[in-house]
């Protein structure tokens, strides 16, 4: 960075041969997290991770971020310290330093994060390149974060290092995978799974002007496979895994950077998004992904 | 823009020989504007102008912006239409297109705007370059926006084209002036006046490690000069004029792009920021600039 926080604006050198990637995300108390349920450390970690996940979804790498923070006076002590600890860890892990921001006082905790990333010119992966016959892949396991959220809402006292909560509290953006897919030119379209497969896949299909057929039996759900884990894999949000399409004649490694890749279906010529059930029948895949407002009552 | 709204992130080509300018600003109901006092058209205009003013303050030009918007369902009809009208006019006027953003539902109107600008490498004007002996200048007139706010709070029904409200509702960032000052290399430090001279000047002095002496008699206050207009010129916020310092042996035109420039004092060697009163005595210039929370009761 040429100039960081403290002036009217930050200055960032540009690099020849690269495009800038720009993305911003709300992270609001009551909508995206609960002050008395989510550890402040996790709030700090996750507000940055979520925005960086959009950079991963383009095949890029993050360069820096801007933080807009509004806080009640009662949160400027211990809560803020813990929040900044989580944010600093994420920033260091992702090599994505703070460039600037804006702070004010408010009766609720409001967070907005802008991430500036970069990708070699012409190598960004968008949502619009999927073609009929392409294979549909997802990274990692689906539904784990939603299961963690359900557990969190049931628990009285949170243990932040509870392994069942890890994916919900401390997700990791798939940066290395996104960059690998961008570099190897097999991928036709890509996005991140932030709102759940049944919400996000139709978005990719709409952007590409195609349909899709998903096989229930192929979904990389969380262990203890049952009806509930299938539902979580289809509709659970907050996973920050990558959803991408690959030309039919291409093969992929089973894992990239330790993250398993699973073929879950194929792109079709119509506009319909359908699910093949475990019994083999086809049904429409209804959008039942993550709804930020449902959490309000939690 | 290589890729605008609708994908995971936006893509912006970078230009050799330029640095990116990054800035973001809150614009929150109850803190920065009042839903039932400020026309939605003005809210749309001003949320972008405020962030672009930070780009002007670096001597740069805006390239695009990201909009994060949280709205009550009751505002998605007429209010949103009017908001977008004001935002579109500002975007067109500033040649600063929408690149992307994030929207959600919320019980209050929350706005965050990120602007990405550019400046030739090495030509950005920061707050830290002022040296003892430099002349201190401001653009335009000071205190007009605060006077407009006071009028707005008294009024029952707003006429958005009331000339006394214009500076408060529809400020204009000093882009041409900022770029002129950057190009002519006479300016040693610069920032925009968003919180009032008595709040912002000490920030510039702290960044530069200097003090300042301001002459009350030189302040370009609003007409009908009296004690109240002097107070407004010293402490009124929201003017989005430029505050800058120029080496002592340099001269400036009286106006740039139609905006008058006024020498209001000089940089000093200590760390004190003092005001020379109309009677010629010196007193400390106390920080009494714009406080976003005062408006809450309005």
Short recap of the structure:
The structure is a homodimer of 298-residue chains. With 298 residues, chain A is α+β, with helices and mostly antiparallel strands.
> What class would the helix/strand composition of chain A place it in?
alpha+beta
Counting copies of identical and different chains, the oligomeric state is: homodimer
CATH superfamily placement of the largest domain in chain A: PurM-like C-terminal domain
The radius of gyration computed from the alpha-carbon positions of chain A, rounded to a whole number of angstroms, is 19 Å
Gross morphology of chain A: globular
Q: What is the number of helices of chain A?
A: 7
Distance between the termini of chain A: 41 Å
Q: Which spans of chain A of ≥5 residues are poorly predicted at pLDDT below 50?
A: 292-298
How many beta-strand runs of chain A?
Answer: 13
**Which pair of chains forms the biggest interface, and how many residues does each contribute?**
A-B, 57 and 57 residues
> Helices and strands of chain A, in N-to-C order?
EEHEHEEEHHHEHEHEEEEE
Mean pLDDT of chain A: 92
Features:
homodimer, 298 residues, alpha+beta, 60s Ribosomal Protein L30, Chain: A, Phosphoribosyl-aminoimidazole Synthetase, Chain A, domain 2, eight-stranded mixed β-sheet, four-stranded mixed β-sheet, 7 helices, 13 strands, globular, disordered C terminus
List the helices and strands and how they pair.
The structure is a homodimer of 298-residue chains.
Chain A: E1 10-13, E2 18-28, H1 40-56, E3 61-71, H2 78-93, E4 98-105, E5 110-120, E6 135-139, H3 144-154, H4 166-169, H5 175-184, E7 187-193, H6 197-208, E8 211-215, H7 227-235, E9 241-246, E10 255-256, E11 259-268, E12 273-276, E13 282-284
Parallel strand pairs in A: 3-4, 8-12
Antiparallel strand pairs in A: 2-5, 3-5, 6-9, 6-11, 7-9, 8-11, 10-11, 12-13
Helix pairs in contact in A: 1-2, 1-5
């Amino acid at each position: 960075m040429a100039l960081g926080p403290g002036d009217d604006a930050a200055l960032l050198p540009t690099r020849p041969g690269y495009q800038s990637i720009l993305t911003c995300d709300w992270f609001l108390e009551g909508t995206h997290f609960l002050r008395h349920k989510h550890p402040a450390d996790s709030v700090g970690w996750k507000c940055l991770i979520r925005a960086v996940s959009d950079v991963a979804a383009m095949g890029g790498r993050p360069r820096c971020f801007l933080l807009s923070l509004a806080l009640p006076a009662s949160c400027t002590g211990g809560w803020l310290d813990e929040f900044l600890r989580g944010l600093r860890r994420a920033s260091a892990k992702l090599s994505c330093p703070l460039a600037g921001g804006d702070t004010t006082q408010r009766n609720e905790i409001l967070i907005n994060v802008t991430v500036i990333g970069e990708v070699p010119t012409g190598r960004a992966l968008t949502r619009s390149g999927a073609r009929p016959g392409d294979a549909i892949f997802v990274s990692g396991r689906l539904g784990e974060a939603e299961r963690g959220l359900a557990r969190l809402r049931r628990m009285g006292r949170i243990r932040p290092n509870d392994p069942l909560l890890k994916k919900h509290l401390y997700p990791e953006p798939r940066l290395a995978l996104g960059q690998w897919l961008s570099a190897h030119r097999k991928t036709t379209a890509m996005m991140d799974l932030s709102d759940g497969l049944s919400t996000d896949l139709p978005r990719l299909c709409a952007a590409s002007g195609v349909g899709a057929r998903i096989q229930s039996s192929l979904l990389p759900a969380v262990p203890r496979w049952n009806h509930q884990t299938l539902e979580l894999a289809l509709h659970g949000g907050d996973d920050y895994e990558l959803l991408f399409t690959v030309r039919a004649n291409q093969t992929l490694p089973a894992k990239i950077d330790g993250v398993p890749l699973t073929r879950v279906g194929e792109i079709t010529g119509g506009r319909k998004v359908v699910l093949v059930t475990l019994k083999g029948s086809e049904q429409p895949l209804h959008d039942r992904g993550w709804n930020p407002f449902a959490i309000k009552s939690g």
